[in-house]
Amino acid sequence: MTAHPLTLDLAAIGGAFDLPGTFIAAERYGSGHINDTYAARFRHADVERRYILQRINPQVFRDAGAVMENVDRVLAHLRSKLANHPDAARRALTLVPTRNGERAFRDSDGATWRCYHFIGGASSHDILTRPDQARQAAAAFGAFQRQLLDLPGPRLRETLPDFHNTPRRLDALARAVADDRVGRARACGREIDFALARSTLAGELVKRHAAGLLPERITHNDTKLNNVLLDDVTGEGLCVIDLDTVMPGLALYDFGDMVRTAVSAAPEDADDLDAITVRMPFYAALVEGYLSSAGSFLTRDERACLALSGRLITYEIGLRFLTDHLQGDVYFQIHRPAHNLIRARAQFRLVEAIEARLDEMNALAKA
Ligand code: ADP
Ligand code: GN1
Ligand code: MG
């Protein structure tokens, strides 16, 4: 789908939140495919402050209240763990409540908006240029999982059921091919064949979970490397962001998506497929960083599946992009014609690149 049209009164939306000062301006921010994110500036007593305003995509998140409940519980817990930390405000997101004391604001179209304090002096990266960035990011995502091991209260809400159920994602692709709603299937024969030829791969993680080998945990589920902020000065993995998909899951869903987004020097939508490779030093850094924080709780079976998870999650996201292309681009925001097909091709090429290095990757995780 294309981005939400900019007929918005961002000043009015910003004004709904309980923050001091007057609205100056807001601009689109980040490179997410689902929500609409804006960086907004407000002035109070001659001081300018930034905030993040986000419109939660109502087509994707049918129950924005459940999303916000999960986010709020997770943030309260992270905050309790950071109680004595001098830099606590930069290490976990802080929601700004509405003037009515709610977690989020509903606009006149019924869409839900939330507001976060802007975390300064830190950045997210779409493409990593140094292995240490991978180490830091993976350590931060591992610490996030570790901090949530003892989240009190009931199980988090499953805001997107079967989100990482890869066999279901493959079924959805098969249905999209059969329906061929926008007449694109014929031109995607190679990609469809690639996907169907790996149907066994689809079941590898859910099968182990069903057999009791991989435990359910609280996971982030969208650990693209640009969903963690790295400190601009120290390079440290500072703050995990984009918490909409925090819910029960497998630790390996998170590690797998880190592999997908960290090991290649080419972007997720690379046209030049030959530029897509596995940079082994980045993979090694991911393993090292992740185990530095998650090593204390991961089981032997989880460790044994680290490389497999990279292969599987890359395949899964490829399936989702291809499905969306065949359905007429109804889910992910696109920015050029056939964008989802281009993304799918790049994911599938990365699957092949991972397959070629799988033995080395497995050996690294065991070392
Ligand atoms: P999306 O769903 O659009 O990916 P994100 O929550 O990931 O939404 O935000 C988009 C980008 O905005 C991030 O990649 C990050 O660079 C930036 N960002 C998000 N939240 C904050 C924050 N609280 N402080 C500073 N930057 C942020
Ligand atoms: C979406 O919102 P964003 O851009 O961080 C998607 C992820 C995909 C990712 C692929 C809720 O993430 O699952 O892995 O695109 N989020 C949702 O880039 O579907
Ligand atoms: Mg994001």
Could you give a short description of this structure?
The chain is of the alpha+beta class and 367 residues long. It has helices at residues 10-15, 64-81, 88-91, 131-147, 166-179, 189-197, 199-202, 204-210, 251-262, 280-294, 300-304, 306-327, 339-366; strands at residues 22-28, 36-44, 47-56, 105-106, 112-117, 122-123, 217-219, 228-231, 237-240, 247-249. Helix 5 runs parallel beside helix 12 (306-327) and helix 9 (251-262) packs across helix 12.
Spell out which ligands are present. adenosine-5'-diphosphate, 2-acetamido-2-deoxy-1-O-phosphono-alpha-D-glucopyranose, magnesium ion
Question: Could you report the average pLDDT, rounded to the nearest whole number?
Answer: 96
Structural class: alpha+beta
- Biggest sheet character: 5 strands, antiparallel
Number of helices: 13
The CATH first-level class of the largest domain comes to Alpha Beta
How many strand elements?
10
Radius of gyration of CA atoms, rounded to a whole number = 20 Å
The shape, in one word, is globular
CATH topology of the largest domain: Aminoglycoside 3'-phosphotransferase, Chain: A, domain 2
